[in-house]
């Protein structure tokens, strides 16, 4: 099984970087024999905030993240969460608080690492 690690740094809205990363991660996760892991750092931890309400016709990264979670793993930098006041109980189901040590392990284990 091939494994791909996606590392996101940008906020969920304001640019399309997180949007494009999540689109690609979901597409890869939808393929057979693919393991997808997604690590959210810096402002990207807000992608996993539950209860997002966006204007009609605008993309919702929370829903997009759910597509990745169906077949992959999503972790958030705990230090980045703390810096932004994001509590674990505010994060969507399936995503979890993590550490830089976990990111290091995932990086070593991955066949490909894509950084957005």
Main attributes of the structure:
alpha/beta, Hypothetical Protein Ychn, Chain: A, 5-stranded parallel beta sheet, 4 helices, 34% helix, globular
- CATH topology, which one? Hypothetical Protein Ychn, Chain: A
CATH class: Alpha Beta
Helix content: 25-40%
Q: What is the makeup of the main sheet? A: 5 strands, parallel
Low-confidence segments, ≥5 residues, pLDDT <50? none
The CATH architecture category equals 3-Layer(aba) Sandwich
- Please state roughly what percent of the residues sit in beta strands, choosing from under 5%, 5-15%, 15-25%, 25-35%, 35-45% or over 45%: 15-25%
According to DSSP, the number of beta strands is 5
Total domain modules: 1
Termini, distance in Å? Answer: 23 Å
CATH-level-4 superfamily name: DsrEFH-like
Query: How many DSSP helices?
Result: 4
- The ordered string of helix (H) and strand (E) elements is EHEHEHEHE
Query: What's the Cα radius of gyration?
Result: 13 Å
Strand order of the largest sheet: 4-3-2-1-5
Q: Which structural class best describes the helix and strand composition?
A: alpha/beta
Judging from the principal axes of the Cα atoms, what is the shape?
globular
Overview of this protein structure:
The chain has 116 residues and is α/β, with parallel strands linked by helices. The protein has a single domain (2-115), classed as DsrEFH-like (Hypothetical Protein Ychn, Chain: A). 34% of the residues lie in helices and 22% in strands. The chain is built from 4 helices and 5 strands. The chain has helices spanning 17-29, 61-71, 78-83, 100-109, and strands at residues 2-8, 34-40, 73-77, 96-98, 112-115. It has a 5-stranded parallel sheet, sandwiched between helices. α1 (17-29) packs parallel to α2 (61-71). The radius of gyration is 13 Å and the shape is globular. The model has no long low-confidence stretch (mean pLDDT 96).
């Amino acid at each position: 099984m091939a494994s791909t690690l996606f590392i996101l740094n940008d906020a969920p809205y304001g640019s399309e970087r997180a949007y494009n990363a999540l689109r690609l991660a979901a597409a890869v996760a939808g393929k057979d024999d693919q393991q997808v892991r997604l690590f959210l750092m810096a402002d990207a931890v807000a992608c996993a905030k539950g209860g997002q309400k966006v204007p009609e016709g605008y993309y919702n990264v929370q829903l997009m993240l759910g597509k990745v979670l169906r077949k992959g793993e999503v972790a958030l930098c705990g230090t980045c969460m703390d810096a932004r006041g994001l509590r674990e109980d505010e994060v969507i189901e399936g995503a979890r608080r993590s550490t830089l040590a976990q990111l290091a392990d995932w990086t070593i284990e991955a066949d490909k690492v894509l950084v957005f």
